[in-house]
């Protein structure tokens, strides 16, 4: 109820005071503007009520103290002894003695009265101190500044003991002695402090706090934090900054001894860790440490790992002063930069261009940067000396002072430090090295983006540049090497699903091109190959088929680099093994003939020859299917039919017996090539293929024109090896045709009409993007160049089209249609769904 009555009283007082102020304003302030009169009428009652309530509370408190005092306040006449009555019959001597006796009693009573009054006053003061919110500290205000208290020298403020590293005393004025502000860092013992600190959140703290300007409750919170050893990192950072202002002033203004400087540096480093999540703390404390470390050390040690790490973590927008000092000092002393210093220079430079691989793969990036730097500059990088000298202008975090720092180098401290801020050439060289390193780490970085905990796995290690394997070893990769050696020793044939499961650590229901490509890359990086190679094989293995693991002899970085001769021979091997499988058995003579064919092929590297032998073993174990050979044969140029015919005829003669099934298979090949099947018998009988026009269709006598020669007569001679070799050596022209054959899917026509109808599954796409999607889903993978081409045909920018298509797919299927991985992989699930919808003719 007391609160309700208080509110009613205040409202009543305000109403009465308001009317009084209105009358006063109307009479006495009539000359002022109306706005000022209204302001007076509104604010004056508030000021009066505040004064009245404060005065009322004080009087009530004093009455309660007196009422609750344990010492009774007796009347003065009751405390004094009454002197004896005057007896006229007494002589003068007796009168004097009586007066002396009464005097002594009066003095004793007066002393007792004084003591009782002092006791009552002491108890009253004690009661007031206990029941008032702020209290005065026991220490008397200092008449002058006591100054800095070193670490280890305890000082007590408001019953709180602080272990030094603070300024205590009357704060000096910053700026004018009359109008300046009190120094923020000084703890003034004369100021009131609350009984307990309850403002850890800093609700009453200003942006630039000062001990003299913050409320009593904030002073109590600050002193409690200091007394607790400054260990609480959850307190408002403003309290930490209030303490830091003192450290900053002591270090830079007072210039203490070196041992004390090192104590201050260590304390600021501790605070920086304690408030690691606060950006302002990291920035201001970091800028202070940037110069304080150097000043505390009397110089800089270029081998100080702690200093280099601090430079790397610096969050300033410019080059850190400590880095400028180190780089300038090395230039002044004629030293060359190593990879670590150039990396630090680039990392801290405001114009750096570091992409995701440099951040996500920090350790790998630094290591690769060093390897590339050492290869380019084995003796280090020498830099010309700039004319501008290094100078540091430091602005205090407290905003109370600025200072300039000029340091020198050399054993005698007499070498001026040049300023490297404006040098561009070293940074450009570092950027070039960094760009190469980031490009090589790009696939590794993307893998870690999809698998944050995948570092050290087989797939991750396979994507890591080979030169880093020794620096970042992988136990899983060593186990993979041992497993691969065992498989090769056992013949090399391994179920494809087992290979993928071994590499990825999980069993899949489908085998996509990405899985097979990743497996081939992983094995190639450890010196083993896999056939068929998914990037340029006629087809990849199915989930229930094997692959061939074989030794490459050395790690290989680029499996996709193959010659035209390799492509030609791989296709001829597929046709030859198709014929060899025709009678359902492969004899040793046929195997030997096929192997000899690989050995006789010219224009191959030794590595390509090994890979062709592995592909041959796969063709021998997994018979080629005419259904997928036919689609490749129809794209072969008629000019190269002769080489293909010679290959299949040669394998048919390999075992000395030509079976009817082999003849039938050759006829299928000839028909797929568009050649008259009747030539099969002539070629087989001759053992060679004539070089000249051949009959595709029987001639009609009545048609005039040049006569086509009859089929060549059978010869006993064997195949003309020289002629076949001449045809094969025309590799440039062959590859231009066979390069298209090795594409796993045919391109979809890009011609679109305005009347083209799209299924409902394409809803949400405009016609151009719908046509693009219709083409995309026809294949499992597109190279960068192919995607750019089909997007361009629709009048779309590749990057924009990719974003639109994937956003549409996410909205509709909750996953992207295209995944960037060595080109663009098409989501098989989305593609199947869309093709099914299109087949319905929706």
UniProtKB/TrEMBL annotation:
<feature type="domain" description="TerB-C">
    <location>
        <begin position="710"/>
        <end position="834"/>
    </location>
</feature>
<dbReference type="InterPro" id="IPR007791">
    <property type="entry name" value="DjlA_N"/>
</dbReference>
<feature type="domain" description="TerB N-terminal">
    <location>
        <begin position="151"/>
        <end position="358"/>
    </location>
</feature>
<keyword id="KW-0812">Transmembrane</keyword>
<dbReference type="Pfam" id="PF05099">
    <property type="entry name" value="TerB"/>
</dbReference>
<feature type="domain" description="Co-chaperone DjlA N-terminal">
    <location>
        <begin position="574"/>
        <end position="677"/>
    </location>
</feature>
<dbReference type="Pfam" id="PF15615">
    <property type="entry name" value="TerB_C"/>
</dbReference>
<dbReference type="InterPro" id="IPR029024">
    <property type="entry name" value="TerB-like"/>
</dbReference>
<dbReference type="Pfam" id="PF13208">
    <property type="entry name" value="TerB_N"/>
</dbReference>
<keyword id="KW-1133">Transmembrane helix</keyword>
<feature type="region of interest" description="Disordered">
    <location>
        <begin position="110"/>
        <end position="145"/>
    </location>
</feature>
<feature type="transmembrane region" description="Helical">
    <location>
        <begin position="7"/>
        <end position="29"/>
    </location>
</feature>
<feature type="compositionally biased region" description="Polar residues">
    <location>
        <begin position="120"/>
        <end position="131"/>
    </location>
</feature>
<feature type="compositionally biased region" description="Basic and acidic residues">
    <location>
        <begin position="110"/>
        <end position="119"/>
    </location>
</feature>
<dbReference type="InterPro" id="IPR028932">
    <property type="entry name" value="TerB-C"/>
</dbReference>
<protein>
    <recommendedName>
        <fullName>Tellurite resistance protein TerB</fullName>
    </recommendedName>
</protein>
<dbReference type="InterPro" id="IPR025266">
    <property type="entry name" value="TerB_N"/>
</dbReference>
<keyword id="KW-0472">Membrane</keyword>
């Amino acid at each position: 109820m007391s609160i309700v009555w208080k509110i009613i009283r205040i409202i009543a007082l305000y109403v009465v005071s308001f009317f009084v102020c209105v009358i006063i304003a109307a009479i006495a302030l009539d000359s002022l503007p109306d706005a000022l009169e209204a302001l007076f009428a509104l604010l004056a009652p508030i000021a009066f009520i505040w004064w009245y309530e404060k005065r009322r509370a004080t009087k009530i408190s004093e009455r309660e103290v007196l009422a609750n005092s344990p010492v009774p306040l007796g009347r003065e006449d009751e405390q004094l002894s009454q002197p004896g009555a005057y007896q006229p019959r007494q002589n003068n001597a007796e009168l004097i003695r009586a007066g002396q006796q009464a005097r002594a009693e009066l003095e004793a009573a007066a002393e007792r009265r004084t003591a009782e009054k002092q006791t009552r006053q002491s108890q009253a003061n004690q009661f007031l101190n206990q029941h008032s919110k702020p209290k005065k500290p026991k220490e008397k205000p200092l008449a002058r500044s006591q100054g800095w208290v070193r670490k280890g020298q305890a000082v007590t403020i408001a019953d709180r003991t602080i272990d030094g590293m603070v300024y205590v005393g009357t704060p000096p004025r910053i700026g004018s002695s009359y109008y300046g502000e009190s120094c923020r860092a000084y703890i003034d013992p004369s100021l009131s402090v609350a009984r307990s600190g309850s403002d850890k959140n800093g609700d009453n703290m200003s942006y630039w706090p000062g001990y003299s300007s913050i409320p009593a409750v904030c002073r109590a919170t600050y002193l409690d934090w200091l007394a607790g050893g400054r260990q609480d990192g959850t307190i408002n950072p403003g309290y930490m900054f209030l303490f830091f202002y003192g450290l900053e002033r002591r270090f830079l203004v007072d210039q203490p001894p070196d041992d004390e400087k090192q104590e201050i540096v260590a304390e600021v480093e501790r605070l920086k860790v304690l408030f690691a999540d606060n950006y302002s703390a990291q920035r201001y404390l970091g800028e202070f440490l940037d110069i304080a470390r150097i000043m505390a050390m009397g110089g800089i040690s270029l081998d100080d790992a702690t200093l280099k790490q601090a430079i790397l973590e610096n969050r300033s927008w410019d080059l850190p002063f400590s880095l400028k000092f180190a780089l300038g000092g090395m230039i002044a002393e004629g030293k060359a930069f190593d990879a670590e210093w150039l990396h630090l220079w680039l990392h801290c430079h405001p114009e750096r261009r570091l992409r995701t691989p440099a951040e996500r793969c920090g350790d790998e990036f630094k290591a690769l940067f060093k390897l590339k730097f050492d290869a380019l500059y084995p003796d280090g990088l020498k830099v010309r000396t700039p004319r501008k000298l290094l100078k540091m202008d430091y602005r205090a975090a407290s905003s109370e002072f600025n200072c300039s720092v000029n340091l020198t180098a050399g054993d005698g401290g007499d070498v001026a430090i040049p300023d490297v801020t404006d040098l561009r050439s070293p940074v450009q060289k570092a950027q070039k090295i960094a760009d190469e390193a980031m490009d090589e780490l790009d696939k590794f970085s993307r893998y870690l983006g999809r698998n944050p905990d995948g570092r050290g796995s087989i797939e991750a290690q396979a994507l890591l540049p080979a030169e880093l394997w020794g620096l970042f070893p992988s136990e899983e990769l060593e186990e993979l090497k041992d497993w691969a050696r065992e498989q090769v020793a056992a013949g090399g044939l391994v179920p494809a699903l087992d290979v993928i499961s071994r590499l990825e650590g999980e069993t899949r229901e489908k085998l996509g091109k990405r899985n097979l490509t990743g497996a081939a890359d992983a094995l190639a990086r450890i010196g083993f190959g896999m056939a068929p190679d998914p990037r340029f094989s006629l087809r990849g293995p199915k989930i229930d088929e094997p692959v061939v693991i074989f030794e490459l002899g050395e790690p290989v970085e680029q499996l996709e680099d193959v010659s035209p001769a390799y492509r030609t021979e791989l296709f001829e091997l597929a046709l030859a093994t198709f014929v060899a499988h025709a009678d359902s058995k492969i004899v040793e003579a046929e195997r030997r003939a096929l192997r000899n064919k690989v050995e006789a092929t010219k224009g191959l590297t030794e590595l390509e020859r090994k890979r062709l032998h592995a592909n041959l073993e796969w063709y021998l174990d997994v018979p080629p299917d005419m259904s997928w050979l036919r689609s490749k044969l129809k794209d072969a140029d008629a000019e190269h039919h002769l080489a293909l015919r010679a290959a299949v005829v040669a394998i048919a003669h390999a075992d000395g017996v030509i079976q009817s099934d082999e003849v039938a298979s050759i006829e299928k090949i000839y028909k797929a090539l568009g050649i008259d099947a009747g030539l099969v018998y002539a070629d087989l009988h001759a053992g060679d293929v004539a070089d000249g026009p051949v009959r595709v269709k029987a001639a009609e006598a009545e048609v005039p024109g040049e006569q086509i020669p009859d089929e060549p007569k059978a010869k006993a001679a064997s195949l003309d090896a020289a002629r076949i070799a001449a045809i094969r050596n025309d590799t440039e022209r062959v590859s231009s045709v066979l390069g298209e054959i090795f594409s796993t899917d045919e391109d979809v026509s890009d011609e679109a009409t305005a009347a083209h109808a799209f299924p409902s599954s394409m809803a949400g796409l405009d016609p151009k993007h719908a046509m693009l999607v219709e083409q995309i889903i026809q294949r499992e993978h597109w190279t960068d160049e192919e995607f750019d081409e089909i997007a361009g045909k629709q009048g779309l920018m590749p990057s924009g089209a990719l974003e639109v298509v994937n956003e549409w797919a996410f909205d509709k299927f909750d996953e992207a249609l295209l995944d960037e991985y060595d080109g663009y992989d098409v989501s098989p699930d989305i593609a199947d769904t869309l093709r099914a919808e299109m087949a319905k003719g929706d």
